[in-house]
Amino acid sequence: MSNTGEGEPGITLASPPGVFPVAGYHHASLAGGMIHVAGQVARDESGNWVGGEDAGAQAVQIYRNIGRILAHMGADPENVVKIMVYMTDRENWEGVAQARRDFFGDHRPPHTGLIVAGLGGPKVKIEIEVTAWLPPIRSADNS
Asked: What's residue 4's pLDDT?
């Protein structure tokens, strides 16, 4: 993770390896100890769409991407403080909920889900963004 020189001082923007790069913005920002992860869609590291028409299968890939982004920023799923999910229909909500439980385990951060008329393209059935807290690094003498 490195400061790209974009944004204000104290803001780090990052697009980690292993997550398909997007044009025009970064996947995450770190500011004031908070990590803001842009809405993720079901693309693998090569840009291939994953999950077909199944929002639950798409969610599995999305959480894989979110995990990679959080790790790159120095965080893990237990640091997530808010989840925001946008879906185009309710049809696969059970699969989406299972993907969330599989990713977070016993950690249950607040979650908001919205059904929307459409997302970035016809293949996109779900988009997920998260906010996480990056605790200060403590040394063995300071803990």
From this structure: 46
